[in-house]
Amino acid sequence: MGLNELEDQRKFIQERFEDATEAEEDGKFERVLSLCEEIIGLDERHADAWKMRTRALIALDRLDQALSNAEEGLRRFPNTTAHQLMKARIQVRLRQWQEAEATYRAILADKPLTLNAIRELMDFETIRLDDDIAQTLVRHQNDLSLKPYDRASTWFLLAQIHLNAGRDDEAFALYAEGNRQMRELHEGSRLEYGFSRLLPEFDAAFQGRHARLDPPPPCPLLLIVGLPRSGKSLLERLLASQPDLVAGGEVSFIYSLFLDVDRTHGADEAMRRLMRPQPSPIARRFRMILQQNPKKSATRVIDTTPGNLEQLAFLGPMHPDVPVVFVRRDPSDLATALFFKQFNKAHRYTYDLEIAARAIARTEHLAQLWQRTLPNPMIEVSYEEIVRDPVGTARRVLERFGLAVDEAALHRAATDDGRKLNLMPGRSLDGVGAIRGDLVGFSDRFSRHLTAVLPAYEAERRVLGDRS
Q1: Is-contact 233 258, C-beta < 8 A?
Q2: Strand bridging mode 221-225 / 324-328
Q3: Among residues 163, 234, 206, 174, which one has the least CA distance to residue 394?
Q4: Which of 90, 84, 47 has its CA nearest to residue 66?
């Protein structure tokens, strides 16, 4: 093959990979597979195509094929940690616990500071303080050669190891330092959870002015809204067991669409701009996700993007039929769980306990506002009732929205036959292991450290005029 032909082939492969990347972003995983096959057929050394093919197979729930592909990718690219991590994650999904542990340990034997491997191994293995992994983290706590986010990660991971060992005071101090470093990383950025400046305009009259005389076509969507760590993923797992519903995770499409609309001329003009494109971009997007999903009985996609809660006022006129579930949690437990999880810039309010407490009060205020003003069917559930009675809570949600209830599927989703996992305040392994209430009231262990949480929460509720 001549130089010109090689260059043409290189460009062709690059174009195909860009097409595959776009298809992956759109959830067109069968298309991704087809394109990856074409790319690999032309260039077996295209490592990114091998990784993308594994991800697509996971998304299509073809876990055995995904595992084979990850193993083949690892054989071809033995020094690529990404293939090993994907292999371990698939083994966890397949409940191959010993194999998963061996894979994670192999990664760490070669690259001891692979933070994702440490984090994910702790989902099902308790790492002791005298373990080499813990000692590696200690050695790198103040390693200035690490990226600031990764350096903060060593503190969060060590905090979890101390927490598992019952060393609560030391654990809390480590979490506090990790969060201090995250605040420093985002120095100058707003930490408070903020409302849209248009919030006063988003009242019932706003909804009435923009209500369509002719009902829009049904939108294949169900929203679960609330803060991270509030129980959204647990509820999604239960509801997605039903024939009508499929888990979409944090799609972010609605949040981005509404966030990007021009608001300089007020809420009414922003709403008119959103209503102009027909058919609705929201309905079009979620129909496409449904079409690409292997679960052909599904009629709605569940979206759990946290930021959707802030933007719901715009949804009412566009799609008043979309059901909305607000999930809340005991404020002390939730504030602590947020503080114990390392978030990046999307959730900067988690870096300080009092700010997190105010964020909880503000999201509850938003949920009450939308329940008073939106035309959409809505229901509120709590984390505590989800873990106390997962089947009953999910049934109540489904019946409220007129959706079919498959009781046996709910029981399977709630109990799971997987190994008992480590439930950690700042991290959960979604979709594996039985739903259980181990973390209800866990913040009592840290009551001496949380004295500012409830006063900050209650003070913010009074400022917002919310009733206790």
Answers
A1: no
A2: parallel
A3: 234
A4: 90
- Enumerate residues 6+ apart whose C-beta is below 8 A from 80: 47, 51, 73, 74
| Residue whose C-alpha is closest to residue 107's, from 97, 119, 117, 93 | 117
pLDDT in tens, 437-450: 999 999 999 999 99
Q: Which CATH number goes with the domain that contains 423?
A: 3.40.50.300
Tell the residue number behind the tokens 């371990």, with chain if given.
Answer: 88
What Rg, from alpha-carbon coordinates, does the chain have?
23
Peptide bond into 279 cis (omega under 30): yes
Q: For 381, phi and psi rounded to 5 degrees?
A: -135, 160
Q: Does 147 lie in the same domain as 11?
A: no
Classify burial at 344, counting beta carbons within 10 Å of its beta carbon; exposed 0-12, middle 13-18, buried 19 or more.
exposed
Closest CA to 350 of 193, 459, 230: 193
pLDDT digit string, tens, across residues 294-336: 888 999 999 999 999 999 999 999 999 999 999 999 999 999 9
Residue type for 192, please?
E
pTM for this predicted structure: 0.93
- How distant, in Å, are the alpha carbons of 85, 162, 170, 403 from that of 126? 19, 10, 17, 40
Q: Are residues 308 and 415 in the same domain?
A: yes
Per-residue pLDDT of 278-305, as tens digits, reads: 889 999 999 989 988 888 899 999 999 9
Structural domains in the chain (count): 3
Task: Answer yes or no: is 326 within a domain.
Answer: yes
- Judge whether 89 lies within some domain: yes
Say how far apart CA 468 and CA 462 lie, in whole Å. 9
- Decide: helix, strand or coil at residue 370: helix
**Alpha-carbon span 417 to 415, nearest angstrom:** 7
Counting other chains too, the contacts that 285-291 makes at CB distance below 8 Å and 24 or more residues apart are 285/251, 285/253, 286/219, 286/220, 286/221, 286/248, 286/251, 286/253, 287/220, 288/26, 288/27, 288/28, 289/27, 289/246, 289/248, 289/251, 290/220, 290/246
**Distance between CA atoms of 73 and 151, rounded to whole angstroms?**
30
Give the domain range for residue 170.
Answer: 112-185
Cβ pair 105, 73 in contact under 8 A: no
Give the tokens for residue 451.
């004295």
